[in-house]
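Structure catalogue
Derive tokens from sequence
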Amino acid sequence: MEFIAPEIDEYCAEHTSPETEILAKLNRETHAKVLQARMLSGHLQGRFLAMLSQMIQPSNILEIGTYTGYSALCLAEGLKENGKLITLDINEELENFVRGFFKESPLNDKIDFRIGNALEMIPTLTQTFDLVFIDADKLNYTNYYDLVFEKVRQGGYIISDNVLWSGKVVDKTKNDKDTLAIRAFNHKLHNDIRVENILLPIRDGLMIVRKV
């Protein structure tokens, strides 16, 4: 997942606005208590997501894949006064941990955390979204994209995480199911005439598309 020299990454983080107190605590607690802590968005990517959200000023955000709630808290920073972020996750084991941190945040009232299968829950949503963040199981990235697309307003954004998949997308020797799924997903979005897209090598890769 390290695509730039560690000292450059550290320099970037040092010259980026700091995490909020609650995010710093969540970062520490995730690394201390939760498996696969590398899944956390973290300081640099988190500030990037927060800034994008603040630029867009969404009324409605959908996040697919909550993990420990770090990215949800970052994205919620840009919501309009009466805005709402719906975040979906299938992992019941982390529910109490996540809800505890949401309750500590002043953004708690803007976050609607739901546990269940996103493939089943997304079709039931009636909102029109300004921003969607996809960061769940890689095999279903294309399915999530297809399910949310018509729920995104014209000019709205879909951001997908982990699209470089630790560099495996450009390694021809890597052909596991997840890698193949991410390659197919990237190809699909790049050739989707309904959007403009940019793939950024931030952390493990962020694909940003704007619905035209």
The helical segments are 6-14, 21-33, 42-56, 70-76, 95-104, 118-121, 141-149, 177-190. DSSP finds eight helices and seven strands in the chain. The first strand starts at residue 60 and ends at 64. The beta strands are 60-64, 84-89, 111-115, 129-134, 152-161, 195-200, 206-211.
